[in-house]
Write a structure and sequence with these properties.
Number of strands: 5
Order of helices and strands: EHEHHHEEHE
Strand order of the largest sheet: 2-1-3-5-4
Radius of gyration: 15 Å
Length: 132
């Protein structure tokens, strides 16, 4: 079973206004859940403590977004729970999905490329897993 932990990542604890609104919505829709806002600093500390052999690779990524992208899989592997990007607006609780081993949310292609006729890989919006 997926534990009731919501994971989010951002540079610092200071969120842009719209992201703060969505973050607050996630919290409101999931009372009693553990909410984790991981910063650049706390992500690195977590990786160093939990996956020390991965730190050279983590630190070698040229962009912070690459570290954040790898972090989401590392934290879900260790702790389980739900990861969501901070620009994802929740409309209702996802608690009814926790009996699953894993679920993924994707963004429709028309949202990714609204003015183009381009096919690509949808961005990952949320992903979840039981720990381990």
């Amino acid at each position: 079973m997926i534990p009731k932990i919501l994971h989010f990542t951002w540079k610092s604890e200071q969120l842009p206004r719209q992201m703060q609104a969505y973050y607050d919505d996630w919290r409101r829709l999931h009372p009693g859940w553990e909410i984790r806002l991981w910063t650049d600093e706390t992500m690195r500390s977590f990786v160093a403590e939990t996956y020390p052999a991965f730190i050279p690779t983590y630190d070698a990524y040229p962009k912070m977004i690459q570290r954040a992208d790898s972090f989401r899989y590392l934290v879900l592997g260790a702790m389980g729970g739900v990861y969501a990007d901070l620009d994802v607006e929740p409309f209702k609780s996802i608690e009814g999905l926790l009996h699953l081993q894993c679920f993924l949310g994707i963004e429709p292609l028309e949202h990714i490329f609204p003015d183009r006729h381009h096919q690509g890989v949808p961005f990952l919006l949320t992903n979840t897993t039981a720990p381990g």
